[in-house]
Amino acid sequence: MTGTVRGEAVQIAIDTVARAAATPEQPQPYAELGLTAGEYAKITEILGRRPTDAELAIYAGMWSEHCSYKSSKVHLRQFADKAPPSAALLAGIGEQAGVVDIGQGYAVTFKIESHNHPSYVEPYQGAATGVGGIVRDILAMGARPVAVMDALRFGPADAPDTRRVLPGVVGGISFYGNCLGLPNIGGELAFDPCYAGNPLVNALCVGVMRHGDLKEAAATGPGNQVILFGSRTGPDGIGGASVLASASFGAVKGDGEAGGESAKRPSVQVGDPFMEKLLVECCLELYAGGLVAAIQDLGAAGISCATTELAAAGKTGMRVRLDAAPVRDASLGPPELLMSESQERMMAVVEPRHTEAFLAVCAKWGVQATVIGEVTGTGRLEMTWHGELIVDLPPGSAADEGPVYHRPMARPADQDTLAADDPAQLARPADGAALRAALLGLLASPELADKTWVTQQYDRYVRGNTVLAMPEDAGLVRVDEQTGLGVALATDGNGRYCRLDPYAGTQLALAEAYRNVAATGARPLAVTNCLNFGSPEEPAVMWQFAQAVTGLADGCQELGVPVTGGNVSFYNQTGGAAIHPTPVIGVLGVHGDVRRRLSIGFAADGAALILLGRTSLELGGSAWAWQAHGHLGGTPPRVDLAAERALAGLLAAAAEDAVLAVAHDLSDGGLAVALAESCLRGGLGCQVTLPGDPFCYLFSESAARAVVAVPPGTQAAFTALAAGHGVPAEVIGTVGGDSLGVDGCFEIPLDELRAAHTGPLPALFG
Amino acid sequence: MMARVGVVTFPGSLDDGDAARAVTLAGGEPVPLWHGEGDLRGVDAVILPGGFSYGDYLRCGAIARFAPIMSGLIPAARAGLPVLGICNGFQILCEAHLLPGALTRNTGLRFISRDVALRVENAGTRWTGAYSQGQEIIIPLKSGEGAFVADPSVLAELEARGQVVARYVNRAMNGSASDVAGICNEAGTIVGLMPHPEHAVDPLTGPGRDGLGFFESVVSLLVGR
Fold this sequence. Notes:
The longest helix of chain A has 21 residues, at 160-180. The relative contact order of chain A is 0.13. In chain A, strand 4 (98-103) and strand 5 (106-114) form a beta hairpin. Chain A is an alpha+beta fold. Chain B has a 9-stranded mixed β-sheet with strand order 2-1-3-4-11-10-9-6-7, sandwiched between helices. In chain B, strands 5-8 form a two-stranded antiparallel sheet.
């Protein structure tokens, strides 16, 4: 066998199946590829011989934590076991993304996925390809991607490395998403020292299709052609799933540079959003022409994943001529080709009678497409390299029957100490001036400050269907221009709450996303999740993970919204220091008529301000405790999912009846921050009289609450509606004027609020 | 007869759907035109929409100007066919030398996406007749390479002949020379505009309706022939 390296012809020894059988004792680099000795032994047992280099590459990718969910699987089953009955679910867990019926013949599919490790090593490309990956997931379901969101978490805003990572991540998302033509409709931006060496970059995409457009990812029909199309395969992202995403970072780090982690930079992929845009349009034309029997995107573990999963799901077998795959670098051997995570590639299964038409559509869009194999009846996944057999394995053994671990779990030793450290003993603002300073301090904290510095780098308008985007509670996209049908989406996570109590903290994140969707007037329908945790090999982390998953499964059951899919990101840990457990929960809701959406911005002078829900003094994990005292202790706010359900029902009904135009969910920073945001969004002030202890009412983070502004003419109708839904409603003031005033406490002109709120991020990031 | 306004789709065009919707809302009939064909299908006017034609990995618009559709469009535009280039379309018009000057990286080197106030400096073009001279409008700007540059002499000529069609009201945050947001040819038939009027045609999905005038201008002109 000859290949070319740096222009010189060299002999490459190809490890064939025959050679593997003949040389059982040859040492193989399984540990370097992230496999344990036990896992390697299992592969040998499955094959009845040692694996070839190519087979080893396949198993290393597919059995990595990132692809196999080997540490999380036993817990994730709860999402299916506890799934509430839902007529809306057309496809659920196990597919690339869940599919939800939203009525009028439409279905939507949505999913959130992490790109944490790549984004730390190479922020710009890491974040960019995170967007690209999740968009292809959605595309592979048969849907047109219509919007993206990003949930971002970084170390302290003023840390030198945050200045490297954050602008790079935001720039990468901007570059990829804008060039791809997908509106960015929302997300999160949070800062905490625990994310300093492990930023979290979670990207969400939502797509729309008609019922019946759902595409399968199963290679069936012997004789059908296997077509690889999109970008050529290059030497980028090799081992992304196994080497990068499924291991912790080393302990030693330098400032401004990711220490020894720069050596992992070749494991980060490089994105080409233009090719992705062509792929999107090309795939949609292929779908419309009925030319695709099955399709899968190439993401983590590249060709390994696409071939094993398609073949495993189809159950009949597949033969692939690996040397037929177009490459950017002729020196790539079979293992590199199989492990490469080069972006913007898809694999389709096509009936022979459609092959010509398929290739013609690809040519129209300038997308390279190559027949690299066919579906067989052997039940095996076979691959050849210039005629020699280099892979021969049962595809299910790689795709579905990977190792499953029941990792040891142990409640962290400091959990009780943390819970006992009650924030009730913290010094509180004593008078109006101190309350005023506390609010301005919160508004100017990087976490709660105005996010325009970030969001003005994202296109929110493209496609012309964005009804709500940042800084609204949720993104809202119109699906049907005639009927006004739309979908609302929010993502939420709170690492502090989860550190104090991962079960309750996860339910609070779920509740907040659910509430945010409801605050647009939409009805929450389904849930996705991105579970960001430390190393599963640490019992304390595993305990946090199990608590979080159980909390989410129980919470979804009680709220009646099924989990339709998700993603687990472990090893967000540097040395012994893990991030706070940070499940990020995405909730999707359906809006019957987006023209009746609710906004957070005060719009009408004289509207009555009504506080919905019950407020009690709950400061554990609160923004105030953290901001004013650097304190994290006690217990997070009480979870009341029945109250959340009632509140959401009220908001949807009020939007439907058009008795309400303004609603804002209460979360970080409590009522005080929510009022300030609504004032600034609408450019209109308010005067408030609090019904009890001002500090508690202003800064407590009790859940299941929202503030609404009701026009005078509809106040009676709204109050009756609230009573009917069993939601406590208290009039606390009136909208109007050009300041935020709290009787007996303080008065803050909007200009002063705005200056405090909008100043920090530009000051930090230029 | 309804005015037929062609909307060109290049590989990487993104706002072609939005431009077509705006034409419809303005009372015209949008006609899709494909980059790979030289035929203008008898349209009465053409819009080159926003996006990243061919990825814009080279200079923005530098490849699109060589697309087959341009071989039909360039002579037609020189002969008086009304053409509006929005954002990437503006860049293409400059690359095709249908308009003078060039668009370069924003000062600050970041993509800027925000609603901006513009002043209509020339309400006499085919695309701005629906506005009044000096009218201030708010439409979204979203671009990474939106800073207009031209030789001082070219700029002076543009100003002297009223070819500056729209200007940013507050100093251009992208560093555009003389705060120029849009220009036209001497005849006022070809207009290039950096911000996106097609994203301001419905208050539900944009900052308002201020952008609709660009489309109504050309549609009413063509209907009134």
